[in-house]
Design goal:
Blueprint: H1 10-14, H2 21-33, H3 39-51, H4 56-73, H5 76-92, H6 96-113, H7 116-132, H8 136-153, H9 156-174, H10 177-194, H11 197-213, H12 217-234, H13 237-253, H14 257-268, H15 274-290, H16 294-310, H17 314-330, H18 334-339
Helix pairs in contact: 2-3, 3-4, 3-5, 4-5, 5-6, 5-7, 6-7, 7-8, 7-9, 8-9, 9-10, 9-11, 10-11, 11-12, 12-13, 13-14, 13-15, 14-15, 15-16, 15-17, 16-17
């Protein structure tokens, strides 16, 4: 696979990666129907941004509205979450310094309130910011603070999410897979005790990723399947695409090519994002080259190449050119293969 699709984004690290579509619809409907400038509206404005990635302009408007209402009402808990939401918006605008300042304000306010849930959220967001800016040690430090605050809430699901976040940092930023697995298993245990399928699926996906990183494809496949089974109840198409693509990759690496194609093709039905489609089609082309089914390899390679050019994915073009070169060599057309280099 030409690129790793990242499980943990800025928002996903802090809240619920596996948000159900129904929850989003309920919050959106509440916002549409409830125009009163009160605490409920503040909570819904921040909650929606925890569930999904809102377009930047809309996210900016929502975060500022939530912050304005919170200040007018002296609603300190809402102000903490509004500052967190606004920090994400500012980060998306590439102002890391201001995003950090807003998070420092949210942390200070949560400490003043002695509200461990909001403090955990603020620390987790600061951890994500440091991770995204390449400051792995600081990211871990804040992640540990976030988990410690969560422990004091006694909320098992929240504790589990923070432990899974720590696992992800050990896996992606430090490459300490022993520690990553240790924290992932802690998260799995707390998610089971909380009986929270959302968080359990997150733990299983994280464990699968760790097995992937250490080259244990068999266990990786087993855990990806567990996460996929959970997602059938959760109903998140974006997550399902991600898991199917990763499962297809595991099958490809273990030489289970028909299974790989099946997973990739199913993934194609779960996304309408051009990059995701291009990625999956190129992976299918690669598998067909391995199967020596060259007509199908060329078909998918040229389709994905056209998509890569359309969205200006230079890395994708290089990956697909490599697939085409191998396909041409297998077709005894070395001159054509050279043109792909």
């Amino acid at each position: 696979m030409k690129k790793t699709i990242i499980f943990l984004t800025l928002i996903a690290c802090i809240t619920r990666l596996y948000a159900q579509e129904q929850s989003v619809k309920i919050v959106e409907q509440d916002l549409k129907n409830h125009k009163q400038q009160d605490t409920l509206r503040v909570n819904r404005l921040t909650e929606l941004q925890n569930l999904i990635t809102v377009p930047l302009a809309k996210a900016d408007s929502m975060a500022n509205e939530a912050l304005s209402i919170s200040k007018k009402l002296n609603y300190k808990e809402g102000e903490v979450e509004s500052l967190i939401a606004l920090s994400r918006v500012i980060y998306r605008k590439n102002d890391q310094k201001q995003a950090r300042t807003l998070l420092e304000q949210s942390i200070a306010l949560a400490q003043e309130l002695d509200d461990k849930t909001h403090l955990s959220n603020a620390y987790a967001t600061m951890s994500s910011l440091n991770n995204l800016t390449g400051e792995g040690k600081q990211a871990l430090d804040y992640a540990f603070k976030s988990e410690a605050a969560a422990q004091r809430t006694l909320k098992k699901a929240l504790i589990a999410r923070r432990q899974i976040g720590i696992s992800g940092l050990y896996s992606t930023s430090v490459s300490d897979f022993t520690k990553a697995m240790e924290w992932a298993l802690k998260g799995e245990k707390n998610a089971e005790e909380a009986n929270d399928l959302n968080v359990l699926a997150s733990a299983w996906g994280g464990i699968a990723t760790i097995f992937t990183n250490i080259g244990d494809q068999k266990n990786a496949i087993d855990y990806y399947k567990k996460a996929l089974d959970a997602n059938k109840k959760l109903g998140n198409p974006a997550l399902e695409f991600n898991l199917l693509n990763r499962l297809g990759e595991m099958y490809r690496l273990t030489g289970k090519y028909p299974e790989a194609i099946k997973a990739y093709e199913e993934g194609l039905t779960k996304t309408q994002i051009p990059y995701n489609t291009e990625l999956t089609q190129s992976n299918i082309a690669d598998v067909y080259v391995r199967l020596n089914n060259l007509p199908m390899a060329f078909k998918y390679a040229f389709i994905s190449l056209a998509s890569a050019k359309k969205i200006n994915d230079a890395e994708g073009e290089e990956w697909i050119d490599g697939i085409l070169a191998r396909a041409y060599l297998k077709s005894n057309k070395p001159d054509s293969a050279l043109l792909c280099q």
